[in-house]
Amino acid sequence: KMLEKFIQQDGMFPQLIDKMRITCESGGTASGLDDLDYPCPTDLPSLMNIIQLKIINKIPIPPEILEQCGNMIAEVEMGLLTAISRAWLVFNSDIYIWNYETGGDVAYFDSLNDTISAVGMVVPKRDVFQPCIQQLLVLATIKEVVVFGVTIVETQDQKVGGELQLTNDIIYSIPCENITFTIIKGTASGRIFLGGSDGNLYELVYQKQASWWGRRCKLMNRSRGVFSFLMVPFFISDDPVASIVVDPSRHILYVLLNSGGIDVYDLGSKGDSVYRIASLSHNLIVHSSLNIVRTIQYTRIFDTSDFAKVVALCPLEECDSAHFGVVGVTETGVRLYFSTGSPPPHRPSCLQLLHVRFPPGYSSTSLVFKQDKLTKVIHKSGSFIMATTNRENCQDKIWCISSDAYPVKPSVFTEDAQCHLLTAPVVSIGELNTNSRICDNALLTENGLVGGHLLVYQQNYHPDKFALLTHQGVEIYEKLRPVDILAEMMRDRNGPDCEDIKKYFADHGSDQACSMALILACNNITNSQMAEWATRAFFLYGGDPRHTIQHLPQQTLLQYSLPQGFKPGTMSTPLGDKNPMTPITRQVEAFTIEMSSKHNGLYLYLARIVRQIWLKKLVVKTLLEDGIQYYVSSVSVKQLTEKTTQLYGLKVFLDKNTAQSGPPEIQSYHDREMTLSSPTGMRARIQEAHSQEKASLDGLKSLVDHTAQVLGLWKILSDHQLHILTIDLTKEQKEQLEMFTFRELILIGRELCSVLISRLINLYLDDQASVDSISARLREVCPSLYRSEDAACSKVNEILLKAKDDKDEEQKMLQLRQAVKMCKEVSPHINLSSVCKQLTCCKYYEGVLEICQDFADKLDPHNLAQKFLDHGQLLDDTPGNSAYHTRISAYREVSGMLDELYHQSGGPFTNINTSFSFVDNSASSQPQQPSMSNI
């Protein structure tokens, strides 16, 4: 319950629409004009020296390319292909591609005859090309669009990276029909969209098989319809497409026109269709912006000069915000937040401006942005990276606008703005593939995907990295997470023992700061010094549990003034006004325990490890090549590895820094009340708070250990092809597997875990493989789910199966004796019936007798069953009766063996009496009663 409380708490962070104070009554809002929107750096001296956007590498353009371009380098077209870590440069009809991370693998292609106008790299559609085609290179010239297949061949030299190779022949080629394409954009499903100089959106539709017309590729105008080419000469627009962006989570495509207008296309719920649903011109956008900002009070009146045209679009995925679809950024840095209608699962229906966010410079405390002209922008994880230029002083800058450095507060949209000077204008900004999409870290709720604040998923998320391409080369920048900011502060101050760190914990809330400190302390990648500092900060500023007094609303009691001569035992009429009620007001106080931030930080850290999979189903059904449905894990092996690594790190931290003791004894309610009312009540309350916190942390340790073992087991099962392990499960077990979430597997799934472990061991036995390695692995990963007794039983089964087929009688006997010895070592934790049947099949009858006798003696060490018989089987002798039936159950396996022998002898089959006397072999004083040794 405590864990789920913190999982729910993480889902209650204020959303973007809350920070913007947008309600049904308010309509559109604006921000960025108050001092609190962009605080002055001197207001937070602890963060003044922290650079949130750090340059980590700078790679120049390869010299062989510079030699070819010469002085024309500043005039050529360039771009980034971040999907394959490449940059490209077009010089007339030639294109150069190189690895921007290493500066090597320069590829040069000159097979085209016309000037290249657009370049794009797209993931191919499934089942259209051979598996060796990993990407499609799409090139648009003034006459045709051509498509090449791309393969990245791994090389042994890791410094160079993979080698890029193109197919020898062009895969597709289609004429442009007098349209110059300015932009190429692909989707995750392999669709290829092109923006034309006529302002229309086109799609290059391709397929594996030739169509009825004999073509495998065609160019379709998605803005006007299928007959658009018949009208091209009469409807040529002078407003070309400037950029195309796609929201992969909601399957929405946005087109930005050169004039600043925006078109919205719905690609369908599955991303396989396309419809234009809304369009806003630049004039309409400016008009809507002015209507919003004129409703707020400011020192001057806004006009159209404050709203330049939109020059960039940043799509917001569903987990970024359910209410906003795209952000348009103007040349002056103003961000315009648009909605596309009702939140998912509804499809987009409109494009409506809801919020205007002004850049730094409008408030008196922030840096001046509005004098710069924005050229490029990218958005990730709530942060904006913007490139600007100032032609008056020839100064180029890179801006980082983010709220990560500030605590999360409702109805407050506070951001930090930092800028750094550049030596050349930015041509392109791209995101490096260091992370999965934010939506992969989101929770699926009734309200759709909820990604939450970066604080929630930063421990599962590496720092974002961005590539800035200039005519001098590529600069790689890293955006710090909140936990990285804390690490930088401790590094700059040589530890946590300073007022700045103390204030950081206080400003962000010590619960959140303690959770961040745990990321550094539990991460095995963190250097030992930083881990030590983080651990010290955790205990230094994590506080202690305490009792707090909660003042409940005042209660007013009404006391009647009873009349003289009132007799309770007689009937009377209601009291009249002569005896009014006297109000008595009492202040009610209640004592509540407030756990320390250390306690809350630990639970927060665990909650953020498991929140992504906590309510996720264990398996999903899938169709494999044979057309049969199988179960596969809903969580990848890579993700399970990350989770178990984090859990083991937390387990090591808990084992190292908490005392090993059981839960404290809790006083009775009466004794506790007496203690609290005594003069030493405060000390008792503090002691009780510590006791309850310790009990909670003991439960946390057990939960962490058990969760790590369950997820570790699930990873082993996934490594061994889960779909094969689950084939022979019963119908009930399969239904349970389908219904269970990881929460249920962890909390109540021990029986299911045992079944799956048994299937895994049987898989090895069926293949006649040794179980030693898998048993050792299971014992290492999940010792409480797979005990040493289980490992011994698995080995016994392996030995018995080998002995059954062994032709060497001497060797067979040695194996059988070894199996019996191992059984006796772990008895009574064995499947007695299974072992006895296998020994009977091997005709080792003495082993059956030994195991049954040992099994019975260990379950009844004091021979209570014999005493139960000696005293006439008294009904009130419950222990004796239980021991008697236990031995009967064990000896029934012996009778079953004898029945089998008698049946094999060919005589008439009769059941052998299973009534045995239970006498210790070493002290048998009644020979008239048969003992186990006589049988």
From TrEMBL:
Chief location: nucleus
Gene3D superfamilies recorded: 1.20.58.1780, Nucleoporin, helical domain, N-terminal subdomain (1.25.40.450)
GO molecular function: structural constituent of nuclear pore
Pfam families: Nucleoporin_C, Nucleoporin_N
UniProt-annotated location(s): Nucleus
Span of domain Nucleoporin Nup133/Nup155-like N-terminal: 56-476
Keywords: Nucleus, Transport
Single GO cellular component term: nuclear pore inner ring
InterPro entries linked: Nucleoporin_Nup133/Nup155_C, Nucleoporin_Nup133/Nup155_N, Nucleoporin_Nup155, Nucleoporin_Nup155_C_1
Domain called Nucleoporin Nup133/Nup155-like C-terminal: residue spans: 596-905
GO biological process annotation, one example: protein import into nucleus
Family membership noted in the UniProt record: Belongs to the non-repetitive/WGA-negative nucleoporin family.
Record-given protein name: Putative nuclear pore complex nup155 component d nup154 sc
Taxonomic source organism: Panstrongylus lignarius
Organism lineage: Eukaryota, Metazoa, Ecdysozoa, Arthropoda, Hexapoda
